[in-house]
Amino acid sequence: LQHDFFLNFYSIYALNHISLKEGEFSIWNIFGIIFPMDTFVLMYKILLDYFGTDINYILYFLGKAQVMGMVDVQRKLFGVRKDQEVLNNITQQAELIGMGNLKVINFKKEGLLVVNNLNSQFCKRYIKLFGHHNDSINYFLTGCLTGLAQSLCNKNMVGIEMVCIMQKKIVCRIEIKGKEEWDVNVDFIKNHFPKTIINKNILEKHL
């Protein structure tokens, strides 16, 4: 299988990489399930109300671990080596499954990735159902992009959503850089710095 098709994820339809048969849905032999966006929003709201903000960091580390595994598969199984190809592949895949219109604003191999989400339906549906929120909610996507950055930069990276349309901004902006490069003396950074509340080693064994 050539890896060139990763350069345009929409070609998977023509290449029959989506399978729908006997009640099973799969994409590239990864089995999944499709829900309306409102279902995910309601699930998140219920978990947030029940568990508090701990759920944000669970979603963050889950996204981070999953995408690090995805990058590993692309490189080992499909032979994708160039960082720019991996970056394009993952952001296009995120768009394909409805995570938003992602635009890379800045990427530096030394340890920086900045991404704007120009169309977060997750946020828009949350606003429609529950109104604006004084905080960001894209923790899963932030974790996914952090896992991507960590794989590309080969260093411990931390991602924070600096701006969100939940706060009546025009875009959601996620910034990822080395863990030691964040100024945790700044209140906003300190309050949004990911808290390790799960055993990441155990989590990663199952992904």
Explain what this protein looks like in three dimensions.
By secondary structure, this protein is of the alpha+beta class. The protein contains 7 helices and 7 strands. It has helices spanning 37-51, 54-77, 83-96, 121-130, 139-153, 187-192, 200-205, and strands at 18-21, 24-27, 30-32, 102-108, 112-117, 157-163, 172-178. Strand 2 and strand 3 (30-32) form a beta hairpin. Helix 1 crosses helix 4 and helix 2 (54-77) packs across helix 5 (139-153). The two termini are 23 Å apart.
Brief overview:
43% of the residues lie in helices and 18% in strands.
Low-pLDDT residue intervals, each spanning 5 or more residues: 1-7
State the major sheet. 4 strands, antiparallel
Globally, the shape reads globular
Rounded to the nearest angstrom, the radius of gyration is 17 Å
Could you give the distance between the termini?
23 Å
Mean pLDDT across residues: 87
Name the strands of the widest sheet in spatial order: 4-5-7-6
Assign a percent range to the helix content.
40-55%
Structural class: alpha+beta
Order of helices and strands, N to C?
EEEHHHEEHHEEHH
Please tally the helical runs, counting DSSP H or I stretches of 4 or more residues.
7
Strand content: 15-25%
How many extended strands?
A: 7
Question: Any chance you could write out the topology, listing elements then pairs?
Answer:
Layout: E1 18-21, E2 24-27, E3 30-32, H1 37-51, H2 54-77, H3 83-96, E4 102-108, E5 112-117, H4 121-130, H5 139-153, E6 157-163, E7 172-178, H6 187-192, H7 200-205
Antiparallel strand pairs: 1-2, 2-3, 4-5, 5-7, 6-7
